[in-house]
Write a structure and sequence with these properties.
By secondary structure, the chain is mainly β. The protein contains no helices and ten strands.
Length: 116
């Protein structure tokens, strides 16, 4: 599944915002919006339609996935975990992982680009 990126020209800096409102659901899609993109790491919010997901892949850095709303299954090293709003999981660097929406769900992905 290709991820559709949403860009916002307006600055998010210094504004009180509702995290779940930064990206909307689109039928049959995964939509993402970068909140922070720095050399040291990224913060991205995603919205997944029910049944959509990200296929198995790995990343060179640890990443924290926080479920903002809905339900998802996150598989790390072939071990699935069901998560719901308020839950989070840390996906370790260089370990295969995948994400699937059990229901429509939104997640915040925080990746710190450091090997320490």
């Amino acid at each position: 599944m290709a991820v559709k990126k949403v860009s916002g020209k307006e600055s998010l800096l210094g504004k009180a915002l509702r995290l779940g409102e930064l990206v909307g659901y689109q039928e049959g899609s995964v939509v993402s919006r970068e909140v922070i993109n720095k050399k040291t790491g990224t913060v991205t919010i995603f919205a997944f339609d029910e049944g959509e997901g990200l296929s198995t892949h790995s990343a060179p850095f640890d990443a924290m996935l926080y479920v903002v709303e809905g339900e998802a299954e996150v598989t790390i090293d072939d071990n699935p975990s069901k998560l719901k709003a308020g839950d989070f999981i840390i996906m370790p660097a260089n370990h295969p992982h995948a994400v699937k929406a059990l229901k429509k769900f939104k997640m915040l992905l925080i990746m710190i680009r450091s090997k320490e």
